[in-house]
Amino acid sequence: MNTKNAVILLASLAQEARLEIFRLLVQAGPNGLAAGDIASRLNIPSSTLSFHLKELTHAGLLKAAQAGRFIYYSAAFNIMGDLL
Amino acid sequence: MNTKNAVILLASLAQEARLEIFRLLVQAGPNGLAAGDIASRLNIPSSTLSFHLKELTHAGLLKAAQAGRFIYYSAAFNIMGDLL
DNA sequence: GCATTGTTTCTATATTTATGGAAATATAGA
DNA sequence: TCTATATTTCCATAAATATAGAAACAATGC
Q1: A64 CB neighbour count, 10 Å cutoff
Q2: Which of B13, B32, B72, B78 has its Cα between 20 and 30 A from that of A51?
Q3: CA distance B38 to A30
Q4: Is residue A3 within 8 Å of residue B19, measured between CB atoms?
């Protein structure tokens, strides 16, 4: 992996809220959790959470799946291997 | 590793100049390189480099060893394992 | 169509981090 | 001690990132 991509990946996890989100979703498994569920578990305002979810998704660490009014976010397990 | 320490570790690598410094020192092996040597190889002003070396050292990713007027920095290989 | 619920976008603000010149500090050799 | 070289600290400034309320945007059920 080139330096620029590695920096994007590392930076996306180098933030307390985002690392907690990622760890929560790793625990949650492949089905993931709805955004609102994450927000209430971690006690993060929805707009702040949305900002962080976007960062993580953009870095390729999360996958988003819409189901009705809910959007389920789940961890993209494979990508961490690429970094190392 | 707890979240806070992990964030410090990740943040210290989540920056282009610092990731390049770390990678250069991994390549350089256990003897490391003197600060000025790193500065000229990566073309970074000395004060800026010093700032980044401090960050990396503080995060535990680098070790510093004084030898005369030179300070040799080398990569602390073991710590990356702790993260995972 | 209207009300309800979940999520995102917009926006302003606050906070953190990076940059590099100049000055200070440290070591060594003549 | 004087000089040269290596590195760091100080400082001001610039740039990037995080925060959260309010408004906008879906999707659903009645």
Answers
A1: 14
A2: B13
A3: 43
A4: yes
Residue A12: how many CB atoms within 10 A of its CB? 23
pTM for this predicted structure = 0.91
Interface of A with B in 5-24 (CB under 8 A): 6-7, 10-11, 13-16, 19-20, 23
Tell me which residue of A64, A16, A67, A63 sits closest to A44, measured CA to CA. A16
Q: Which residues pair with B67 in a beta bridge?
A: B70
- Cβ neighbours of B7 in A, within 8 Å: 13-16, 19
pLDDT in tens, B57-79: 999 999 999 999 999 999 998 87
* Cα B75 from Cα A74, distance rounded (Å): 34
What is the pLDDT confidence band of residue A19, given thresholds at 50, 70 and 90? very high
